[in-house]
Amino acid sequence: MSATEPRLPTTAPTPGRETKLFWEALADDRFVLPRCDRCGHVVWYPRQFCPVCHTMGVSWFEASGRGSIYSFTVVRQAYGEWKPFVPYVIAYVELHEGPRVLTNIVDCDPDSVAIGDPVEVVVDRSPEGAGVYRFVPVTRRR
Fold first, then answer.
1. By the 8 A CB rule, do 95 and 133 touch?
2. CB count, 10 Å around CB of 136?
């Protein structure tokens, strides 16, 4: 895929009160996560309370943006705006910090993706300029 082609369709997110800081950081090309102030659990999906100890209060930190593919599927048939992009990869990435995030693996041959592959975050832009996180294999990053 050339640098001028879009990786995948990208729609601007609709941030809520609890996710606003996450999406604002992505707009600045930063990948941040919330961590519980009490027990240290890294929280995903972003929210203002800890799902482990149920304490209100999290602090945001700059995450590594690295992880490995936990699970994935290759989509080979799609409709609408996604149809020109098949095949593409939908995956769960287990971040070094612990959480698993649902995402796409981009900039690679979908048939080369394997569970355990190391990946790192890249930020794609919506037509409105909002940041959307995706991941690329570390060994194949441009």
1. no
2. 18
What class has domain 20-140?
mainly beta
Three-state DSSP at 82 gives helix
Look at the block and give the residue holding tokens 């832009």: 125
Overall residue count recorded for the chain in this entry: 142
Query: Measured between alpha carbons, how far is 129 from 133 in angstroms, rounded to an integer?
Result: 13
* pLDDT tens, position by position, 20-76: 999 999 999 999 999 999 999 999 999 999 999 999 999 999 999 999 999 999 999
φ/ψ region of 54 (left if φ > 0, alpha if ψ in -120 to 50, else beta) reads left
Domain ranges of the chain: 20-140
Whether the Cβ atoms of residue 102 and residue 85 lie closer than 8 Å to each other:
no
24, two tokens: 């604002």
Residue in 141, 98, 122 with CA at minimum distance from that of residue 30: 122
Q: Could you give the angle at the alpha carbon of 35 between the alpha carbons of 34 and 38, nearest 5°?
A: 140
Q: Report DSSP state, residue 67.
A: E
Looking at residue 126, what is its pLDDT?
Answer: 87
Q: How far apart are the first and last CA of the chain?
A: 11
